[in-house]
Amino acid sequence: MSTELSKHNGGNGPALRRRFQTGNWRERNGVWSCKWREYVSQPDGNYKTEWRHKSFPGLSQRAAKAAMRPILDAVNAANKAAAQLVVRTASRTVNDVLSEWRKLVAPHHKPRGLETTESHLRAHIIPELGHVPLSQLDVRRVQEFVNKITPGRSGKMVENITLTLTGIIRQASKWDKELQPINISDLSMPPKEKARPQFLSGREIKKLITASRGVFRTILLVLALTGMRINEVLGLRVEDVDFENKLIHVRKSAYNGTLGTPKSDASAAEIPLSATLAKALRRHLASRHYRENPLGVLFANRRLRPFSDNKLREKHLRPLLKSLGMKQVGFHAIRHGVASELINSGTPITVVRDQMRHSDVRVTLGIYGHVIGNAQRKAVDSLSKTMVA
Q: What CATH number is associated with residue 109?
């Protein structure tokens, strides 16, 4: 009977096919003996074939085979289990890992981040890599993936897609030893062009607020007088507004009608409540635009759920911008505009950091460096007039 061993993809690991053994029997000097194979695991993960031998003095052939049967049964059962394990391992692909990641890790991600991840998976990662065996998912294979998706896309987009992939691999490698973590620093990435954030000037924001009405006007006022993110504004609850101590507690963020946590730990903070905004919020709470709701949010839709930022942008913000002849931007342009106005007015960068609730002043400098440059030029011009004029 053949003892050939079939290797799984890549040529490494234990045998895929192990033949069922009945033993090689022989008689010598009236004593029956049996010879069989066992596969012994080696430190490098491969298996070595070793021959075993057992004699049965004083037993007939039939009795000897009966005595040998439990040993062969155990050997054959072990071979079958090991072969099945290898078949499962050899057939595992990136799609299998993604399925496990979705069950084990995805539920703990924020809804917006998870939506982006799923978009990367559907559009790029699964079509290109879903069928790839785990044994072939190495730095070289991921580099080929990066090269394939680069044409026609910005360096930042390619980086984001690749970070989604490497992040999932890093997580899955904790429970799947066949996966090796891959860092983006191991890859050659396309250059990134740093895009300036879109922002509205203070005058444009004022124009927008003046032209708006009802609950949408109050939402714009909160954005303009706090610099909060739109999802944080839509997640504000009545209890988060402290009129007595003149504070707004940023504790929640709304996405698709569901309350979650803010973007980061630094985002969950307290910011000052101006007298103008306090007056506007009190007026909103006393008006017909405020709807009491189970979640206690300040701004609830007809279904008594938080508004969707996407629907507000498409149905209110963009039509309003178009009617005013202004550039088409998103709500985040108001946040950037607030920060820019603060910097231009001479507000210390550390105060701007606290108002924007950035984790580090370097984040603020990285986003608004061009505005700081304008402020410096104004300061130099003012200094020139003082010293020379």
A: 1.10.150
- 289 with 147, same domain? no
Say if CB 271 and CB 228 are below 8 A apart.
Answer: yes
Determine the structural domain holding residue 118 and report its residue range.
94-186
Backbone CA torsion sign across 176, 177, 178, 183: positive
CA-closest candidate to residue 134, choices 91, 82, 86: 91
Dihedral of the CA atoms 201, 202, 208, 212 (nearest 10)?
Answer: 160
Q: Residue 10 pLDDT more than 50?
A: no
Sheet with 31-41: strands ordered across? 24-28, 31-41, 47-56
44: tokens are 């490098």
Asked if residue 304 and residue 262 are part of one domain, the reply reads: yes
Q: Is 357 left (phi over 0), alpha (psi -120 to 50) or beta?
A: left
Query: Which tokens belong to 365?
Result: 């400098």
Question: 362 with 303, same domain?
Answer: yes
Q: Tokens representing 91?
A: 């057939």
Is the pLDDT at 115 greater than 80, yes or no?
yes
Nearest to 341 by CA among 216, 209, 205, 230: 205
Amino acid at 301: N
Assign 3-state DSSP to the chain and report helix, strand, coil percentages, each to 5.
55, 10, 35
As a whole number of angstroms, the distance between CA 325 and CA 337 comes to: 18
- For 26, list phi and psi in degrees, rounded to 5: -155, 155
pTM for the whole structure:
0.64
Count the Cβ atoms, other than its own, within 10 Å of residue 332. 15
Between residues 144 and 381, the one the model is more confident about = 144
Distance in angstroms (rounded) separating the CA atoms of residues 238 and 297: 6
Model confidence pLDDT, tens digit, residues 34-84: 998 887 777 766 677 788 999 999 999 999 999 999 888 888 887 776 655
Query: Position 228: which residue type?
Result: M
pLDDT at 290 over 90: yes
The verdict on 352 and 300 lying in the same domain is yes
Pair 200, 300: CB distance under 8 Å: no
Question: Cβ neighbours of residue 354 under 8 Å, at least 6 residues apart?
Answer: 269
Both 214 and 246 in one domain: the answer is yes
Domain endpoint, select from 136, 162, 186: 186
